[in-house]
Amino acid sequence: MKIDLSRMDKKLYAVLKAAAINCGRLGLEAFIVGGTVRDLLLKRQNYDLDVVVVGETRSLIEALSGKFKVRPVLHNQFKTAAFSLGDRIRLDIVTARKEVYEYNGALPLVELGTLKDDLYRRDFTINAMSVSLRQENFGELFDYFGGYEDLKRGSIRVLHDKSYFDDPTRILRAIRFEKRLGFKISANDRLLITAALNSEAIEAVRPVRYFKEIKKILTEKEALFILRRL
Q1: pLDDT, tens digit, for every residue of 113-168?
Q2: How far apart are CA 99 and CA 134, in angstroms?
């Protein structure tokens, strides 16, 4: 399945084309991932662009820094670079990686990985799709975990049964997305959430991480409904 990326906001599309052209020149594989893809399929505007590169990102970061005359914020721990490009546009570039949790609720240990590894570490299937920026298959959708079908069903579903134990803050995100998108948390996820709430994983998470999720909830239009649901 191919997605017509030219339907996006013109400035967003220009940023993606610049990334695609430079990836082609540098011999890199790059993909739009996460909420950007979800909202594109839902025809919702999203000015946050998340791009995963399979391999090193330094040369692409340097190329885009020069083109847009901006200095990115680098986060070496998670191998990311964040660009603010004006007009609300934010571009995050990250090396494809996989994550290992030493214990429930811990911050993950990061290793280099494949595109599929990178998508597997994400919270929900609807946020685990990607779109190619390679010139030979520009716009092709990669969906390893059934996110597109869940999107059509309006279902919030994690990628594996340990997900809420690995990171219990996903419980708050599930409810936030449920209301924002008008979706429903899947029946199996409701069972998994109950099990996670009754486990030691909840107390292993530092309170500041919950607070960050609560702050995000308070920016939503239906914040009161979400808090009642919680």
Answers
A1: 899 999 999 999 999 999 999 888 889 999 999 999 999 999 999 999 999 999 99
A2: 25
Residue 106, classed as helix, strand or coil, is coil
* Tokens of residue 201, six digits: 């994983």
Q: What is the CB-side half-sphere exposure of residue 86 using CA atoms within 13 A?
A: 5
- DSSP E strands in the chain: the ranges are 29-33, 48-54, 73-75, 80-84, 90-95, 97-100, 109-112, 130-132, 141-142, 155-156, 184-185
Residue 130 main-chain phi, psi, to 5 deg: -140, 160
Cα gap 200→181, rounded to integer Å:
30
> Whole-model pTM?
0.88
Q: Are 135 and 25 in contact (CB under 8 A)?
A: no
Three-class SS of residue 122? Answer: coil
How confident is the model over 39-94, as pLDDT tens digits? 999 999 888 889 999 888 888 888 888 888 888 887 766 567 888 887 788 888 88
Amino acid at 127: N
d(CA 69, CA 188): 47
Encode 153-187: b = buried (16+ Cβ within 10 Å), e = exposed: eebbbbbeeebbbbbbbbbbbbbbbbbebebebbe
